[in-house]
C-alpha cells in the first residue's frame, strides 16, 4: 500500500513537471476519451506563463531534464521509438543531453580498487580527474606502464555509485504509471506503455553492466577489423568488471568540430562518406551496428580514420531484416518499386490481403519525387521515414529493430551531411548494398543458404525422438486423468511421427537438389 502511494505521488510529480514546462501540449486530444480530455485541460492550466515562447530547449527536454537522469535516459530511449511518441516528440527528445556533474575522483578510485582488487597505484601509472560525466557513468584518463617501459593511455569508465538502486526505484514508478494509463485509457494499449517500460528496463540494465559494453566493443572491432576507414578501441579485459570498463584511449577530433577537422588537413567529404558506409556495413553486412552514432561518439584520428566510442546502445538485425534493408535501398536506387513492395510481402511485414501492385504504387509516390531533385537534397532517412508512414496504411506490423535502425540512420545522415553538405547519400550507399546483395543473393549466397537449410533439417530429424517421448508422456498423463480413447490418440501420434519422418526425408531431398543446382 505504501509502495503504491509512493509511486502515485511520484507519478503526480512527473505530471506536474510536464504540465508546468508545456510538455502536455504535444498530446493529440483527438483520440482521447472525454474524461482524459478534461484532465488534460486541467493539466494545461498549470503551464508557466510564457512557456510557449521560451527559446532554446523544447518542453519535453526541459521537463525531463528537471525530473532527473532516469527520465533523461527514458526520453533518449523514447527518441528511438517514433512509432510510439510520434515524429515531432521524437525529434524533441533527440536533443536531450545526458550530462550531469561528475562525482569525486576519490569515489571512483575506491570503486576501481574494490572491483579490481588492487590499489590504484598498482593498476595504473597515473589516473586523472573525470574528463566526461553522464547519468550512468563517467570517464577518466589513465596510463599503464607496458613491459617495454612505454606509457600507454587508457580510458577508464566508472559506474556512478547508487545508480542501479536509483533507476530501479524510478522504473517501479514508471511501471505503476503505465498501469494507470492502461486503466484510464484501455485503447492506449496499442502504444504498449507497459511493454515500453519493460524494454527500457532491459536496455538500461544491460547498459549498467560494463562487461556487456566491453563485449559489444570487442564484437564490433572483430566485425570491422578489415575496414580501412573505421576502427574501434580495444577493451582491456583484465582491467574491466561489472562497474569498470577500461579501453584504449582515443586521441582524435570529434566530428562535431568540422572547422578543426579541415584545419588539421583531413578530408571532410571522405569522412562523410565513411560515416554512411561504415554504418551500412555494420547494419547490412554484419547485422550488428552502433545505435548511438551522434557526433560526440565519433572521432577522426591522426591518420584520418573514423573511430567510434560508447557502445552502451547497439542494434541487431537478423539475416531476413538485412536482406529487407538491402533490397529496399537498392530498389529505390534502381527505381524498382515493385521489387521494394514484394520484399515487404516476402518478409511478412504487410498482410497478404493487400495488393502488391497497390503497395508498389504507394512506394512510387515516395521514390519518384526524390529522383527529380539534386542528389545533395535527397535524404535516405526521410525516405525510410516516409516508407514507414505509408506502410502504416497497409497494416504493416511495427518491428522494433527496424525503428531503431531508421532512427540511427537519421542521426548518421545528419553527421555525414554536417561534414559534406552536398553528399550524395545514395551513391555512397550503392557499393555497400550491391556488394552485400551480390555476396548473399548470388550463387555463393545460395549455396550457403542451402547449407543452413540442411542444418535446420538435420536439427529437426535429431529432435524427432525427443518429440516422440513428449507425445508418449502426454498419452500417459491423459490416461492418468481418465481419457477415454488413449489408443486413438496414440495412433494419431504415431501417424504424425511417420508423416514427420517422410516430410523430413522429402525436405532433405529438396535441400540436396538445391545444392546440386547451386553448384551447377
TrEMBL record:
Family as reported in the entry's similarity comment: Belongs to the protein kinase superfamily. ADCK protein kinase family.
Q: Give yes or no: UniProt keyword Transmembrane helix.
A: yes
The family database entries (SUPFAM superfamilies) matched by this protein are listed as: Protein kinase-like (PK-like) (SSF56112)
The biological process GO terms on file are: ubiquinone biosynthetic process
What InterPro entries does this protein's entry cite?
A: ABC1_dom (IPR004147), Kinase-like_dom_sf (IPR011009), UbiB (IPR010232), UbiB_bact (IPR045308), UbiB_kinase (IPR050154)
What keywords were assigned to this record?
ATP-binding, Cell inner membrane, Cell membrane, Kinase, Membrane, Nucleotide-binding, Transferase, Transmembrane, Transmembrane helix, Ubiquinone biosynthesis
| Domain of life from the UniProt record | Bacteria
Q: Which GO terms describe its molecular function?
A: ATP binding; kinase activity
Could you identify this protein by its name?
A: ABC1 atypical kinase-like domain-containing protein
Residue intervals of the ABC1 atypical kinase-like domain: 95-344
The biological pathway it contributes to is: Cofactor biosynthesis; ubiquinone biosynthesis [regulation]
Q: Which residues cross the membrane?
A: 500-519
Amino acid at each position: 500500500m505504501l509502495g503504491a502511494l509512493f509511486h502515485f505521488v511520484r507519478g503526480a510529480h512527473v505530471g506536474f513537471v510536464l504540465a508546468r514546462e508545456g510538455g502536455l501540449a504535444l498530446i493529440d486530444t483527438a483520440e482521447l476519451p472525454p474524461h482524459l480530455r478534461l484532465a488534460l485541460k486541467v493539466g494545461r492550466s498549470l503551464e508557466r506563463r510564457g512557456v510557449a515562447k521560451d527559446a532554446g530547449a523544447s518542453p519535453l527536454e526541459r521537463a525531463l531534464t528537471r525530473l532527473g537522469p532516469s527520465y533523461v535516459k527514458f526520453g533518449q530511449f523514447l527518441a528511438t521509438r517514433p512509432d510510439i511518441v510520434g515524429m515531432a516528440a521524437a525529434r524533441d527528445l533527440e536533443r536531450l543531453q545526458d550530462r550531469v556533474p561528475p562525482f569525486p575522483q576519490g569515489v571512483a578510485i575506491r570503486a576501481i580498487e574494490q572491483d579490481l582488487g588492487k590499489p590504484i597505484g598498482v593498476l595504473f601509472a597515473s589516473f586523472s580527474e573525470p574528463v566526461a560525466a553522464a547519468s550512468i557513468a563517467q570517464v577518466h584518463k589513465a596510463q599503464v606502464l607496458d613491459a617495454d617501459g612505454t606509457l600507454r593511455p587508457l580510458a577508464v569508465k566508472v559506474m556512478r555509485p547508487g545508480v542501479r538502486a536509483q533507476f530501479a526505484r524510478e522504473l517501479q514508478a514508471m511501471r505503476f504509471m503505465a498501469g494507470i494509463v492502461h486503466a484510464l485509457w484501455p485503447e492506449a494499449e496499442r502504444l504498449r506503455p507497459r511493454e515500453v517500460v519493460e524494454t527500457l528496463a532491459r536496455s538500461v540494465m544491460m547498459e549498467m553492466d560494463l562487461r556487456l559494453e566491453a563485449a559489444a566493443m570487442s564484437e564490433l572491432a572483430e566485425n570491422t577489423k578489415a575496414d580501412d576507414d573505421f576502427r574501434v578501441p580495444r577493451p582491456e579485459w583484465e582491467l574491466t568488471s561489472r562497474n569498470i570498463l577500461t579501453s584504449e584511449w582515443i586521441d582524435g577530433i570529434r566530428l562535431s568540430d568540422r572547422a578543426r577537422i579541415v584545419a588539421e588537413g583531413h578530408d571532410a567529404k571522405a569522412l562523410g562518406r565513411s560515416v554512411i558506409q561504415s554504418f551500412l556495413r555494420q547494419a547490412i553486412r554484419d547485422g550488428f551496428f552502433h545505435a548511438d552514432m551522434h557526433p560526440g561518439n565519433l572521432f577522426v584520428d591522426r591518420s584520418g580514420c573514423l573511430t567510434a566510442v560508447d557502445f552502451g546502445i547497439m542494434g541487431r538485425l537478423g539475416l531476413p531484416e538485412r536482406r529487407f534493408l538491402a533490397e529496399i535501398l537498392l530498389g529505390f536506387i534502381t527505381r524498382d518499386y515493385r521489387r521494394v513492395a514484394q520484399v515487404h510481402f516476402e518478409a511478412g511485414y504487410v498482410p497478404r490481403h493487400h495488393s502488391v501492385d497497390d503497395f508498389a504504387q504507394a512506394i512510387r509516390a515516395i521514390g519518384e519525387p526524390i529522383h527529380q531533385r539534386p542528389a545533395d537534397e535527397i535524404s535516405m532517412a526521410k525516405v525510410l521515414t516516409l516508407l514507414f508512414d505509408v506502410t502504416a496504411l497497409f497494416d504493416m506490423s511495427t518491428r522494433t529493430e527496424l525503428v531503431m535502425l531508421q532512427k540511427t540512420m537519421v542521426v548518421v545522415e545528419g553527421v555525414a551531411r554536417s561534414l559534406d553538405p552536398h553528399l550524395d547519400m545514395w551513391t555512397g550507399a550503392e557499393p555497400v548494398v550491391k556488394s552485400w546483395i551480390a555476396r548473399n543473393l548470388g550463387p555463393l549466397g545460395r549455396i550457403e543458404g542451402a547449407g543452413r537449410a540442411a542444418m535446420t533439417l538435420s536439427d529437426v530429424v535429431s529432435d524427432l525422438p525427443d518429440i516422440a517421448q513428449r507425445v508418449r508422456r502426454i498419452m500417459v498423463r491423459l490416461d492418468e486423468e481418465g481419457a477415454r480413447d488413449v489408443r486413438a490418440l496414440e495412433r494419431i501420434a504415431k501417424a504424425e511421427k511417420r508423416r514427420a519422418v517422410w516430410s523430413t526425408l522429402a525436405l532433405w531431398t529438396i535441400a540436396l537438389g538445391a545444392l546440386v543446382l547451386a553448384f551447377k
